[in-house]
Amino acid sequence: MSKSSRPVSPRDDALGAEASELGGADAAPLLRVLGIMNSDGSISADSRRKFKQVSHLIPLLVSNMVDLPKGRPVDIVDLNCGNAYLGLILGWWLVRQGVACRLLGVDRDPARIDACRRKAKTLGFHDAEFEVGDALTYPLPDSPFAVLSLHGCDTATDDALVRAVATNAEHLLAVPCCHREVRTLLAPSRDHAPFIGDGILEADHAAILTDALRMQWLRAQGYRTGVIEFVPWEHTPRNRLVRARRGLDATARSRARLIYSEACAGLKSPPSVLQSLE
User: Fold this and answer.
1) What is the pTM of this model?
2) Helix 48-62, helix 13-21: angle, nearest 10
């Protein structure tokens, strides 16, 4: 057996803290359904990186959620849900906090949607629905408790941001993936000229600018917003977590609107999805 595939127990010291974040032994059904834990309770070394990401998400997801609504059901929407890691993890955690949770996952891939339905059934998550559709147009519930998006490629993350604002979501939680659009919009201005044409520097500059624009756009829409590294880079280079909560004051919204507009003025055109600041 190769070193990379050697089973590792979740009780090992190296993994103990992460397992406790997910509820220790009670998390075993979730980890099995997500394909992280083997049937014998071990975790292969190949799955350790995924395990680190999954386990670190729980405290970071919920630390921004004070006064969890109990006594009434809440809606969680997972856009571009893929394997639905984010939606199933948050839904699983909320149910164990006594919060009645309805989960809706949307993705364009029918095979992934079928797989998500099987996962929810195995977990006994009866209030979970997974549907084939476009994140920007699929009908969503009004005022969901949270809109999620994990590793939506390029503007797919922006689709989730737009829908969160349009549905008046209380929380937004997104882990962006690759960034392409803003790189094509960089103009040879004073701010961008030093990076254009320098390969990885241009790509990194565009990626950081993309997330910075997202932050200011959300603030202009009335969301208290922050971005953090949710797991060390060696586990995944896509390690920035965007967290936003509705309730930013008018002064801060106006300031963010100005910053966003000034930043877009240095581009050939505003990003296609994040254009409106109505």
Assistant:
1) 0.84
2) 40
